[in-house]
Amino acid sequence: MGRSLRAAVLAVVVATAASSALLTGTAGSALAAAPGSSAASPGSTAAPGEAEVPADPGLVSIPFGDEAEVPMAEGWSVADCTAVVPPAGVELGCEPSRLTLSVDEYDPDAGTVVMPVELRTGPTRVTVSYRVEQAPPTPPAAPELVYDHPFDSGAVALVPLSDLLVHCDGCEGVGARLQVRGVSPEGAAVARATPSHLAVQSAPGFVGDAVVSYRLRDAQDQWSETTSLTVAFTAPPAGATGAGPLQALAVTVPLAEQGDTVVDLGALTIAGPTGGGDAADAPRLLGCGAPAAGTVRCSGDEAVWTPPASTDDDPTTDVDQFAFHVATPDGRQATGSVTLVRAGSDAAEALPVGLARVAPVPGRGDDDAAVRTLVPALPADDGDDGAPDAPVLLAPLVSILDRLGGTP
Fold first, then answer.
1. Mean pLDDT across 153-181
2. Domains in the chain, ordered, with CATH?
3. Distance of alpha carbon 292 from alpha carbon 321, whole angstroms
4. Tens digit of pLDDT for each residue in 139-151?
5. In the chain, what is the straight-line distance between the N-terminal and C-terminal CA atoms, in Å?
6. Alpha-carbon separation of residue 242 from 202, 274, 276 (angstroms)
7. For position 194, what pLDDT does the model report?
8. HEC sequence for the chain
9. What average pLDDT does the structure give for the chain?
10. When comparing pLDDT for 401 and 114, which is higher?
11. Residues of the chain with pLDDT > 70: what percent?
12. How many Å apart are CA 82 and CA 71, to the nearest integer?
């Protein structure tokens, strides 16, 4: 996605004063006095106007998703732009005063390729051999978070990926994989990723904080540092004794073909029977989380999702997601989520419209609890270098656009 945060690093490394003068834009007078310089200098065997190849070329690293700019030193210019041949797969922009290098798609096998460029100042010509490479994307990253909204003890917490605040440049268009490393305290819960959620099911009767440690891997097999999500599982509040569980569904809904998408959150909230059955005891919306791409306005029982402005760099959004949180006057709370998917898109195949589905954990859950037992399968033992057992996470949900951290 075009608004993903991009690394922009250009490193120019030289060993001789001559190469330094040409590659970093310092004064051209350093060239004549440099030992080993390609320019004609006192004691040089080169004829005036001829050049020797510099002993130490510069390194040009093309930032992932960006371009590298190579300015010429003052007084120097590219002798002939048509003679400059970039490495395969690299797009070259050439002006007498600078070169720009970019790639449409990162190639991890491109290696380092020498690109000779003839420069001139007055009658003097010199050939500089730039070494061009493609910098990999920044490894994935996600902050350690404490989820602000509790879940019922014994239930499954379906935390939407949009609330994990994941940043993954190398996941654009291909998604990522999430590997659960463990849950503490031991035996408190089991956790697993789905294409759109991190699912955490507490052990029966467990009350307290379950800390899920996980890491992410991008398409270039780069791992993030291990991070964590803390989820609180609570017993029913004292005022809710005898009340049924409060449930907020995790659903996938189709995006409107144009304009806003309106979601009835009231229809996604199920409150078990209470002693009085009064309308005053009905659950109320606490608020909504931030979507990954668009914006959402929540009030009453309704959420209105607005797509981001479409540009050439940021085409029409195919998938987005946000959480919503509800509570009852007696203190029961629940969190649900809405994943919006455009019909006919690749995301629609991975996330069919309807309830979020994850496989049951053997020996866990209650067949009569329906929504509360949408639980994840136990993860396989992946090892430190194995591929995570989790499915590929939807790329648009693991790329932070203009969101810069914060707690859901």
1. 85
2. 17-134 (2.60.40), 145-397 (no CATH)
3. 6
4. 999 999 999 999 9
5. 22
6. 21, 7, 11
7. 82
8. CCCCCCCCCCCCCCCCHHHHHHHHCCCCHHHHHCCCCCCCCCCCCCCCCCCCCCCCCCEEEECCCCEEEEECCCCCEECCHHHCCCCCCCEEEEECCEEEEECCCCCCCCCCEEEEEEEEECCEEEEEEEEEEECCCCCCECCCEECCCCEECCCEEEEEHHHCCCECHHHCCCCEEEEEEEEECCCCEEEEECCCEEEEEECCCCCEEEEEEEEEECCCCCECCCEEEEEEEECCCHHHCCCCCEEECEEEEECCCCCCEEEEHHHHEEECCCCCCCHHHCCEEEEECCCCCCEEEEECCEEEEECCCCCCCCCCCCEEEEEEEEECCCCCEEEEEEEEECCCCHHHHHCCCEECCCCCCCCCCCHHHHHHHCCCCCCCCCCCCCCCCCCCECHHHCCCCCCCCCCC
9. 73
10. 114
11. 65
12. 17
Strand partners, 106: none
Q: Would you state the pLDDT for residue 371?
A: 27
Q: How far apart (Å, rounded) are the C-alpha atoms in residues 335 and 342?
A: 23
Residue 272 has pLDDT above 50, yes or no: yes
Residues 6+ apart with CB under 8 A from 317: 255, 293, 294, 307, 308, 310, 342, 396
